[in-house]
Design a protein that fits this description.
Layout (H helix, E strand, L loop, with lengths): L1 H7 L6 H17 L13 H23 L14
Helix pairs in contact: 1-2, 2-3
Length: 81
């Protein structure tokens, strides 16, 4: 995946970050929160929720830049601070 994201980096420099973030969410979903940080980088559900919101917002930005298309944000996702 990283090799492909490196090539796509030419389109947008955020693509490698988005590509590497996806497996982390998969590990979290599979292993659930990991307080020790061994199997997942997310120590709580709240950490994962905040990261997911940011990831979706970043994906929206990249999509808009690549397509030059505006659309209604369907995620309605706001990280809680």
């Amino acid at each position: 995946m990283f090799e492909v994201s490196r090539i796509l980096n030419r389109l947008n420099p955020m693509i490698p970050y988005l590509t590497l973030a996806s497996p982390e969410l998969h590990r979290y979903r599979y292993n659930e929160p990991d307080r020790e940080g061994v199997f997942s980088v997310f120590r709580s559900d709240e950490d994962a929720r905040e990261f997911t919101c940011r990831l979706l917002n970043d994906m929206t930005v990249v999509y808009r830049e690549l397509t030059k298309e505006e659309f209604t944000d369907l995620t309605q996702c706001t990280p809680q601070t």
